[in-house]
């Protein structure tokens, strides 16, 4: 088990500063005399990748703002298990914070599956980030649905537009998806989205994906460019189709009970930091996605042909994907698509 702990250096200093901080902010130490707060923040990615650096930056900011009172240990993917284990850990409160992909909560929070809908958000990633940050449908209505499961999404943010990878031929039309073994996250609506194109989706953790692509257990997958490059999926795939069919959305989540019981001043700092991080992580994902397109292009040992979909080709997929929204409304949503309706109105205001 690999656990990355941050800022062990300085812990002693933090302990000394703790009493002073608590006096200043009026907080308490739970009456146990141990004033330092140690939180666990688990991510689905490894060191250097977008989710991990998000958690690291978050931890640094909280440490500074509280003069060392709050120390957050950041765990990379695999440190505490796979993605679905991490969802359980957050719900149970074994970890306090998590960066979570809605795709791994699909069986539990049906409404959260709306992020699986292709061509829902604008093509412009910055506009998508603005919607994710300000949407009432997501930040109030969807949050309430997650809170029924003891998960509070404090923010939603993009890790970039997703692209498809494949072998043999690029994915440019629904015909190319006929019987295509598409790796997906565990969400019934992601499955439906790819079945609508004619594919044969298979869910698995990304930890198994490189080997599965290499052995041909699955034929292809979707992810933002930085992740395709950093996880080396391009090494075992011949084509990357620039489909921009969806954004990879991540959520900054906390255990609801734990969060509600936080000292007011500390909770305000968590909220303030979450808000500040929206612009920071947008720039970071952009930087990493730009960096990795060059890395993939220049990797002559593992050549990847990059294919841009035309607007006409995208329109064929968009038409099919639009029908999947009706499936979400009638078969997936427990609210008849109420949250999706509101989100669509908010998106329309931006277009
Ligand atoms: O494909 C996945 O499952 C992984 N992709 C990203 C961009 N982050 C973590 C996630 O588990």
UniProtKB/TrEMBL annotation:
Coiled coil: which residue ranges?
none
Q: What Gene Ontology biological process does one annotation of this record name?
A: transmembrane transport
> Source organism's superkingdom?
Bacteria
GO CC annotations on file? outer membrane-bounded periplasmic space
Which Pfam families does this entry report, sorted A to Z? Answer: DctP (PF03480)
Alphabetized UniProt keyword annotations:
Signal, Transport
Q: Where is the signal peptide?
A: 1-23
Q: Which family does it belong to?
A: Belongs to the bacterial solute-binding protein 7 family.
> What protein name applies here?
ABC transporter substrate-binding protein
Where does this protein come from, organism-wise? Answer: Alkalibacillus haloalkaliphilus
Lineage, uppermost ranks: Bacteria, Bacillati, Bacillota, Bacilli, Bacillales
